[in-house]
Amino acid sequence: MELRPGNLKLRALIAAAPEAIKETIGPMEPIEYENASDEIRAVFDDIKATRGVDDVNNFWKYLANEPRMLAHVWQSLKAIMGEGALDPLTKELIYVAVSITNNCEYCMASHGAAARAKGATEAMMNELYAVVGLANMTNRLVNAYGVPVDEAFKR
């Protein structure tokens, strides 16, 4: 099969790949607290205490299928997403921008909600969407035209 942008068969195969994987290995199931190991419960308890919530969201329940990754991602998130050189709202807005670019509906929704909870207004979110769209467009134009980096922009 020829790899051309307009190749509808190839595009259909790529679009169907996640479903084909699910059919082959079965769908991943969430790990609920009552069915979790002590190792997973410890991470869930930390998430709930840190966030002041009664239950963890779906991301953590699915990630709990690999307890090492669950613990790693939670520790990384706590270390990176809190106060730092960038304030937490800015970090959430960046997360939304990257999630839009990666087409991750779940992350767009969860980090959009987190950004709003940290003070993002609808005007800020709309402007963010415009910047992300513009950046993606101009990035693709630069790549398509093969534009070299100006000397003034290099470090």
- Looking at the structure, the CATH topology of the largest domain is AhpD-like
Outline type: globular
- The CATH architecture designation of the largest domain is Up-down Bundle
Oligomer: single chain
**Structural class determined from secondary elements:** mainly alpha
Number of helices: 7
Unreliable stretches (pLDDT < 50, length at least 5) are: none
CATH homology group of the largest domain: AhpD-like
Could you name the CATH class of the largest domain? Answer: Mainly Alpha
Q: Beta fraction of the residues?
A: under 5%
Q: Which percent range fits the helix content?
A: 55-70%
Distance between the termini: 43 Å
The biggest sheet, with number of strands, parallel, antiparallel or mixed sense and barrel status, is: none
Average residue-wise pLDDT: 90
What's the β-strand tally?
0
Domain module tally: 2
If you compute it from the alpha carbons, what radius of gyration comes out, rounded to the nearest whole angstrom?
20 Å
The arrangement of helices and strands along the chain is HHHHHHH
Write the layout of secondary structure elements.
Layout: H1 8-25, H2 38-51, H3 58-63, H4 67-81, H5 88-101, H6 105-117, H7 122-145
Helix pairs in contact: 2-4, 5-6, 5-7
Give an account of the 3D structure.
This protein has two domains: 25-81, AhpD-like, CATH 1.20.1290.10; 83-155, AhpD-like. By secondary structure, it is mostly helical. The radius of gyration is 20 Å and the shape is globular. It has seven helices and no strands. The mean pLDDT is 90. The protein starts with 7 loop residues before the first helix and ends in a 10-residue tail after the last helix. The chain has helices spanning 8-25, 38-51, 58-63, 67-81, 88-101, 105-117, 122-145.
